[in-house]
């Protein structure tokens, strides 16, 4: 409005000027002739009209120029808006491409479906690589997902999904599907339920191939079962202690060896299974374990009933990557019977040694393999006149005057197990020859077959 008024002001000013000039001319024209006045008025009118037209043109030009400027401003704003929109569209295109690349890069099937009809509205390209079915099949085939669930899992999976969708809960489940080539593929389906007005409208999720994981779990379970059977049926006790020397595992054999149940043993320290005499020894062994020293040794435990349990302990310290001690694995072999047999044998040997040493007849223990005397008693030393050191260097040829017959008797006794010769001529250290009665028999002594000669002087 202001722009229009400014132009009109120019027009009225021009008219005013013309009117003023006309008045002045009229006043001075009284002195002119009539014809001149008329001519002058015509010229003045033309000039006034010209001024009016020029003023109008100026106003129109002013209005046009301002309108052009307005249109240029509007055009610039439109160009800027078009540029901004183009930039937004470019960014949206890049974002969409990035999103699609990201979705297709995910090692799983990204999907979206209608919560009511269960019809897929989006499925990522990974679906075809994972299960072998073209992506379009997921959209076109009715009940595609349902039909390809493993028959043994189908009912349970469908019920589980329906319950969670209706309760609008996010859920996670594992099940088997049948791939296009007939393979069984384990999937983990992580699902989010999208709600609108407190009702489920969409479901979105990711299906991840966990077949390798399931196969590993199956193999691990089989391995654990195999080792569990080995541990449970092992003839050795298996005992695991923690860093505080408390029992954290014991197999059935170990518990039976000590007379406890497995439940009773758990949490008990190693020292609860030793007597006072072996407390210090057990503590020393545990200290060596803390140094991560692997060793084997004989050790005496105390059973629940107070009796002794002799064992061979194969101790393997358990240390972490930093070398810190965290426990001990012990393989325990019961050698109580062997220890008892050794004790009985030692007692028997002591008794035999006592009888051997105090026997009135001379006795020689002869090694069949080496042909040397292994031992002689005191009666032999007195009868033949040798010292013990000298006697252990002798052979039958050194004491017999009938060497050939003596070795013949030795061969016979080693085969038949015994021999009895009523008279045989022997000689003492000083050369004295005297008759003896000889009885020979074989037996096992210190894990070797030996002959015992019993000699009676006649």
Question: What key attributes describe this structure?
Answer:
Beta-Lactamase, 51% helix, alpha+beta, single chain, 15 helices, 4 domains, 27% strand, 5-stranded antiparallel beta sheet, 458 residues
User: Can you write the helix and strand succession as a string?
Assistant: HHEEHHHHEEEHEEHHHEEEHEEHHHHEEE
Number of domains: 4
Overall average residue pLDDT: 81
Poorly predicted spans: none
Largest sheet: 5 strands, antiparallel
Cα-based radius of gyration, to the nearest Å: 60 Å
The N- to C-terminal Cα distance equals 168 Å
CATH topology of the largest domain: Beta-Lactamase
Give the neighbour order of strands across the main sheet: 2-1-5-4-3
Question: What is the percentage of strand-forming residues?
Answer: 25-35%
Anisotropy-based shape: rod-shaped
CATH superfamily of the largest domain: PAS domain
Helix count equals 15
CATH class of the largest domain: Alpha Beta
The number of distinct β-strands equals 15
Under the CATH scheme, the architecture of the largest domain is 2-Layer Sandwich
Structural class: alpha+beta
Helix content: 40-55%
């Amino acid at each position: 409005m202001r722009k229009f008024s400014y132009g009109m002001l120019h027009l009225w000013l021009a008219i005013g000027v013309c009117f003023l000039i006309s008045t002045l001319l009229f006043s001075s024209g009284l002195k002119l002739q009539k014809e001149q006045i008329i001519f002058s008025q015509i010229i003045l009118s033309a000039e006034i009209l010209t001024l009016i037209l020029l003023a109008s043109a100026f106003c129109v030009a002013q209005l046009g120029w301002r309108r052009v400027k307005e249109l240029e401003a509007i055009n610039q704003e439109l160009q800027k808006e078009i540029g901004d929109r183009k930039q937004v569209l470019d960014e949206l295109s890049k974002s969409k491409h990035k999103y699609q690349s990201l979705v297709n890069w995910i090692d799983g099937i990204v999907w979206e479906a209608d919560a009511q009809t269960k019809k897929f509205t989006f499925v990522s390209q990974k679906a075809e690589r994972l299960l072998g079915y073209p992506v379009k099949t997921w959209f076109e085939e009715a009940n595609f997902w349902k039909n390809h669930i493993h028959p043994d899992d189908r009912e349970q999976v469908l019920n589980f999904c329906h319950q969670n969708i209706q309760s609008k809960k996010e859920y996670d489940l594992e099940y088997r599907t049948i791939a296009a080539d007939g393979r069984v593929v384990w999937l983990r389906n992580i699902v989010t339920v999208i709600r609108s007005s407190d009702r489920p409208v969409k479901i979105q999720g990711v299906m991840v191939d966990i077949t390798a994981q399931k196969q590993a779990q199956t193999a691990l379970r089989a391995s654990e079962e195999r080792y569990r059977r080995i541990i449970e049926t092992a003839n050795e006790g298996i005992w695991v202690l923690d860093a505080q020397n408390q029992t954290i595992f014991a197999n059935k054999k170990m518990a039976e060896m000590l007379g406890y149940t497995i439940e009773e043993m758990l949490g008990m320290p190693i020292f609860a299974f030793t007597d006072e005499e072996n407390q210090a020894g057990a503590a020393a062994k545990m200290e060596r374990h803390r140094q991560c020293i692997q060793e084997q040794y004989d050790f005496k435990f105390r059973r629940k009933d107070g009796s002794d349990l002799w064992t061979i302990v194969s101790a393997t310290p358990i240390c972490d990557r930093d070398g810190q001690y965290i426990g001990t694995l012990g393989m325990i072999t019961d050698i109580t019977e062997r220890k008892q047999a050794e004790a009985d044998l030692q007692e028997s040997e002591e008794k035999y040694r006592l009888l051997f040493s105090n026997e009135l007849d001379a006795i020689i223990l002869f090694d069949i393999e080496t042909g040397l005397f292994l031992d002689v008693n005191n009666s032999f030393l007195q009868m033949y006149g040798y010292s013990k050191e000298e006697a252990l260097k002798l052979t039958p040829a050194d004491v017999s005057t009938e060497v050939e017959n003596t070795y013949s008797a030795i061969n016979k006794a080693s085969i038949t197990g015994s021999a009895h010769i009523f008279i045989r001529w022997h000689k003492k250290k000083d050369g004295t020859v005297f008759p003896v009665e000889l009885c020979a028999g074989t037996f096992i002594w210190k894990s070797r077959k030996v002959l015992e000669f019993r000699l009676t002087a006649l």
